[in-house]
Specification:
This protein has 156 residues and is mainly α. It is built from 5 helices and no strands. Helix 4 (104-116) runs antiparallel to helix 5.
Length: 156
């Protein structure tokens, strides 16, 4: 019974967080011009995103208080995947550091490679192949298509 209570508490916190973030996005968007659907202003996208977050939070809250399945149908909650968390956070930190001093290509490769190692099914070879593919795609999208002002390579 204790795990059920903690699951409901986690879902309630998640719902509350989503609702607060959504309301914050709507409040911030109201400081900009919303425009119309034909000519959207700078506040339109954050307002829509905020409304979606609020609706998602309400849906999560409804599922948290709704009657759930019988006690015997519940699954055991597995322990957290600390390796995955560590690799994803390490990948993001590496992206920031390598991006500042090395450029988009090595930063993207490092981010994907390190994050992929968080999955126990990835080998070094598969992580490197995935990182190479995502780096090529990222350069094509962000550097050439969107012309993002982020140097591909930077020395120092």
């Amino acid at each position: 019974m204790q795990s059920k209570r903690s699951a409901v508490r986690r879902e309630a916190w998640a719902a509350g967080t989503m609702i607060v973030l959504g309301l914050g996005a709507i409040a911030q968007a109201s400081t900009y011009s919303l425009g119309t659907l034909a000519r959207m202003g700078p506040g339109m996208f954050p307002a829509i995103l905020g409304a979606l977050l609020v609706m998602l939070g309400l849906a999560i809250a409804r599922m948290a208080v709704a009657p759930s399945v019988a006690e015997e149908d519940e699954e055991d909650v597995p322990p957290p995947e600390w390796r995955g968390w560590g690799c994803i956070i390490g990948g993001l930190m590496t992206f920031i550091l390598v991006g500042k001093y090395g450029g988009l290509v090595p930063a993207t490769f490092a981010l994907v490679f390190i994050s992929a190692l968080g999955d126990r099914q990835h080998t070094l070879r598969s992580a490197a192949l995935l990182a190479t593919g995502v780096t090529i795609l990222g350069v094509a999208v962000f550097s050439w298509a969107l012309q993002l002002q982020f140097p591909l390579f930077r020395w120092g």
